[in-house]
Amino acid sequence: MTPNKKIALVTGGSRGLGKNMAISLAIKGLYVIITYNSQEGEALAVVKQVEALGSKALAIQLNTADTAGFDVFFKTLEEKLHEKFNTRSIDFLVNNAGVGVGATFAGTSEEQFNLLMNVHFKGVFFLAQKALAMMNDGGGIVNLSTGLARFYSPGYTAYAAMKGAVEVLTRYQAKELGPRGIRVNTVAPGAIETDFAGGIVRDNPQVNEHIAGITALGRVGLPEDIGGVVSFLCTEDARWINGQRIEVSGGMNL
To answer: Above 50 in pLDDT, residue 38?
Structure first.
């Protein structure tokens, strides 16, 4: 497929859902920039996979919990965009980077709360804010939420609360950025077989079986179930979808 030269930035793109998003975006003809926190080797492997599909890709280090580092990141991004793509702007931002911390409401420490807030809400808020100066009109933002913002599962109180905040943020962003033609939507995955939260869904047979039993389609989700939805939202086919929460869970807890 001939790339349409739209460029998408995906945070946390070295593995799991972000990796599949990057590949799906490349298949749809977009150029891709992924960020990684510490797994440079895995990120570079994803870049090779994307380029093998005939697209172009970059990997840049970014700790999304550290807003103080965002200015340096965007300076590096601008330089690498010019060097690799002969541009200084992007079209889409996918706020995917995340961490899993399991704790009840009563058992959540302030340290755990701050980590989740910095990664899943504060980082998402200010990364998008700073990205606006580099985003082309008519592009879009995809924020990742979770099915846990709709239904309850023990041990995810703070995590789900942060994602609920992101869902509200999405609607406000959609309204305020509408004059620029920038669409903003939320994708809320259900339980997915990745290494997220220690790989509990992927590696624990009892958990996997339980989730399959409460899912209308009778199985646990896979990364490829999510990447295609995110990449669709970064295409012209999704031009009239804005301010929406799209749950991609196979019908969990209906």
So the answer is: yes
| Cα separation, 149 vs 243, whole angstroms | 16
d(CA 241, CA 237): 9
Amino acid in the structure at residue 190:
G
How many beta carbons lie within 10 A of that of residue 59, not counting itself? 25
pLDDT in tens, 61-87: 999 999 999 999 999 999 999 999 999
Which residues are marked as active site? Answer: 159
DSSP-derived secondary structure for the chain:
------EEEETT-SSHHHHHHHHHHHHTT-EEEEEESS-HHHHHHHHHHHHHTT--EEEEE--TT-GGGHHHHHHHHHHHHHHHHS-S-EEEEEE-------B-TTT--HHHHHHHHIIIIIHHHHHHHHHGGGEEEEEEEEEE--GGGTS--TTBHHHHHHHHHHHHHHHHHHHHHGGGT-EEEEEEE-SBSSSGGGGHHHH-HHHHHHHHHTBTTSS-B-HHHHHHHHHHHTSGGGTT--S-EEEESSSBT-
Q: CB under 8 Å to 207, separation ≥6 — which residues?
A: 200, 201
Domain ranges of the chain: 7-247
Between the CA atoms of 232, 233, 239 and 241, what dihedral angle is there, to the nearest 10 degrees? Answer: 120
CA–CA separation, 160 vs 167, rounded Å?
11
Pick the CATH number of 7-247 from 3.30.420.40, 2.60.120.1520, 3.40.50.720, 1.10.540.10: 3.40.50.720
pTM of the predicted protein model: 0.94
Distance (Å, rounded) from C-alpha 55 to C-alpha 207? Answer: 37
